[in-house]
Request: fold
Amino acid sequence: MQNPTEILEKYWGYQSFRPNQEEIIKSVINGKDTLALLPTGGGKSICYQLPAVLQAGIAIVVSPLLSLMKDQVMQLTNRGIKALYIPAGISYTDLDKLLDNCIYGNYKLLYLSPERLQQELVLERLKQMPVSLLAIDEAHCISQWGHDFRPAYRNIISFRESIPDITCIALTATATAKVQQDIVEQLKLKEYKFFQTSFERKNLAYRVLAEEDKHYRILDILKKNTRSAIIYVRSRKTAQTYADFLQSRGITAHHYHGGLGNDKRNANFLDWASNKVQVMVATNAFGMGIDKPDVQTVIHVELPESIESYFQEAGRAGRDGNAAYSFVLYSPADKERLYNQFIRILPSVDYVRQVYKKLNSYFQISYGEGEQEVFRFNFMDFCSTYKLNTLITYNALQLLDRNSVITLAQEFFRKATLQLKISNIALSFYLIKNPGIDEVVKNILRTYGGIFDQKLAVDHTVIAQKSNVGVSRVHDILLQLDKDDIAIYEHINYDTSITFLVPREDERVINPIAADIRAQNSRKEEQANALLTYIDEKSICRSIQLLAYFGENKSEPCGICDVCMRAKRKTASREKNGEIEAKILLLLAENAISSRALAQKINTTEENKLLEVLKTLLQKRLIYITADNQYKKV
Reply:
């Protein structure tokens, strides 16, 4: 067995561990159940990835986000570590093949969603694997008191009991004391080791600013802090609007949200990650797995839904240890908007039941059917068909996702048909006159026989891969063919995908999760109130407030947040006033002097401050005004 530090350097290129990482890894290697709380950017993944490499067998990693799994598997593969994840919506046959690869392919890590641990095939195959470790990422999802409760996490214990001798590590970046205890109880951690790295970020200044003109303030912040930045907004439209505004003012910016195509999202991310653009304006779709150390500034233009979300997003600034800033810009209307966006649009159990039934009707799913079927659709069209409120309906879908009824994904997808209207010879002449598109068109001809005779369904991704271009480029070329009357191109844009995880049984599906839905709604309201308390509290250091929320006591103010800076300015102002007051009393002890003469003798250009001190001295009756309008000491 190699030394953990040697493995760290060999695969990750680091020569030393971050705080608590080595101790956590040794705990896992020594077979101890482990609960680890590490702040955002604290290096949680290495705490289970490295033991997986070090030990014989395969580590099972339970994670809530497919995008995060995919990203981590790609990073591990690039480092020469064999890892695999199970994507949503794959066929039984493909799932079987992937699991067989894990049994016989010498893989070190297998990433699964918690829902996969409820599938018989998966459980049977896992029994055949030499499991070395069970790692629970984002472990706060197991607790109904957590900020992202996912009931499917509660089923992990059933799997764990089937491999009782395997070590378990649970990791999270944000968990209150109540959530920590719930994690321990739900996972039945035995004689576990507990590690908590302080959530304090001494280099990160938390600033909460009341602003009516947010555009002006953003420009001011970004011109003073010129390194990499993230601006968080609540909607796709707002992301585009702010990115366009910044570009119009000479600041390089991209936008990022779930409605962008994969190609566009990846291109925007790479430009930002490589510092070709300064600012990424994003919804919270831009989140977990973003590991860019040199982010200097994070700005929330709209209030986040909870302190947990805010703390994670703010924590993406300053991971390199340099001075960094997290700004929340709010106006009085934002507080009302927070309730409108997060509390008043919480769906009741009856509403969730209604949406579930409408989904089944929309996709024509019969009773007892639909399990593991994937459907792509336009979310706005669905809501329009049934006259449903879009915000409440989206939250209902999220609740169905969190309660393991469906898997919800925001993705951009085109369903398209194409038919060529001209002859093969005429097409050849067209391609000669329009260089640059022939490779794509020729691949369409090779892939879709009979496309001159009838409309055929075409797959942009297949064409893009064969032509070595992006999906958006394929779409643009097809639009050109249609515009030039060369082809008939019909396409529908889809922005949402769902996978049904259980067969349709309307009441039997919803009734068992009704209590959980009510509990989650109640927790959402508590979280919104906690965030508003944080925004309104202007006498306690921001860092002290945040750490106290997560059960960490800190007595010394940070000295760099807006509360501390305001206190420093007040202290400095009092000290300055005291100096001016002493000079005035000394001068007036001899003669009566006018305010203008006092300003010259004291040598101050701050006339307002001088008048303020004179007013205070008059109120204290230490000086008085003479008949010729001069000041004299009593």
